[in-house]
Amino acid sequence: MNSYVRYSACAIFVWMLLKVLRVGRREPFLPPGPAAVPILGNLNIFPKLEAHFKLTEWARQYGGLYSIKMGPGTAIVITNATVLKDLMDKRSLSTIDRPPNYIADRVTGGMSMVMSRYTENWRILRRASHEILTQSACARHMAIQRAESSQPLHDFLTDPKGFYTHIRRNSASVILSVLFGKRAPRFETKEVSDFFEVQHMWERILTPGSLPPIDFLPFVKWMPRPLARWKDVCDETRRRQRNLYFGLLRETEERVANNYENGCFMEEVLTRQAEFGISRELVGYLGGVMIEGGSDTTSSWVQSLILALAAFPEAQKKAQDEIDKVVGADRLPTPDDFSELPYIQAVIKEVHRWRPAAPLAVPHGTVDEISYRGYRIPAGPTIFVNNWGMLHDPDVYERPEDFWPDRWLQNEFGTKPEVINTDRKNNIWFGSGRRFCPGVHLANNSIMVNTMNLVWGFNYGPEIDEKTGKPIPIDTWNYAKGILTCPEPFMVTITPRSKQHAEALEHEFQASSTAFAPYEIGLGDEDKEFIKSQRV
């Protein structure tokens, strides 16, 4: 009997050992990928920062569809336009999910439209956002967007060295005005400073490698708090997010109750709350997640635009020559001019391609098994859409690392002449499938207005070294290393193109006070004093 027990125990041990050693191995039905090791799979070689570079390197080796093993889990990486269309658009119902994210759920309670899985809450949030962010609805907010775009022009005239902060304030103020009906005239305005602080915390904990991989090592979630400081970080992020989101919602509710409506989007949500079947808790998170999507990404985009204009003077001159021909020097551009500015349109597309704000997008997840090209992708794996790899593919784009807007004048996709573009889209930077960004019209309007104004009004160039008298090289690769990327603070010179331009820019700002007024109700005393000091 003792021998039987020993043999049985030995057999069970061997069976368990073999089973454990199979963890992390790539199943034969999956697309190919880098060699995996037992238990860890590819976790040992998966980069903690700037993962898009490594995933692009692997795509050159394994193709536009490959897999990586994340411990017992699997991730599928898409770096090909045809695969993207086939899996994310044509089979969008199968790839509509998000992968499990314990950290995101702990912070948001599963109520973030961006991070939430395919749940009833997500469907309610998605419907509400699509209903209120239609193209015609966004067009009604063009007046405040144009007014908001005038303040950075004034700021660049009076404090050009502070341009980086001015851009961040502007993007936040635009989205606060449009969503919650309350603008932010200063970066120090409480809602703006609070937003960027909590957003930095939020992006940091979402960045792969910054916290333990709890979804792949679930036992970590049960570690005692003294050994799991990440719990404190998550809980503090949650507290500060909720203070911001629900503080803004409460102000909007009070303004509506006192008949001080200004037509902002959240007023419409509150009016149609019963129609949407959306709880107050979800209303708060709907507004919060739209601030995140509309502020951080837009400021990153505008900062990349200025970086590109300063680093690539040929592109800057072409853009200015075109806008001078169409608009002249005695007035600022308007949205009506945009259709006559193909090179400006090309500049916008090239900034998106050259420095996408979300190089890997937000990962998707599969809800159904998919058979594709002889492979089998089961339900559950994470899907990385490698925007960076697709937009910097040397087989698709001429000189992909250069900022070269001219490529978009050759064809609508900016690709090499020989490339077949049947399955290609020129807006993948806004997402794909049923997770496509619902705020695309609002974002496009802000980007259009800011690009035309900034190109029309100013010259951009490198700083001059006081000792040598030579231009200081601009580092176009110095970007933040997170789930969203933006240029780290950089130095450029910003000067008005002429006295006539400067006068027109200042006049535009002063004339915007009427458009600002409905959005300045309820501002604090310091903000009111600041406004008085800026207007004549």
Automatic annotation (TrEMBL):
InterPro entries: Cyt_P450, Cyt_P450_CS, Cyt_P450_E_grp-I, Cyt_P450_sf, Cytochrome_P450_fung. Pathway: Secondary metabolite biosynthesis. Pfam families: p450. Its cofactor is heme. The keyword Iron applies. Residues 1-25 form the signal peptide. GO terms for cellular component: membrane. Keywords: Heme, Iron, Membrane, Metal-binding, Monooxygenase, Oxidoreductase, Signal, Transmembrane, Transmembrane helix. Heme binds at residue 437. It comes from the Eukaryota. GO terms for molecular function: heme binding; iron ion binding; monooxygenase activity; oxidoreductase activity, acting on paired donors, with incorporation or reduction of molecular oxygen. Gene3D superfamilies: Cytochrome P450 (1.10.630.10). Its main location: membrane. It is found in: Membrane. Belongs to the cytochrome P450 family. This is Cytochrome P450. It comes from Rhizoctonia solani.
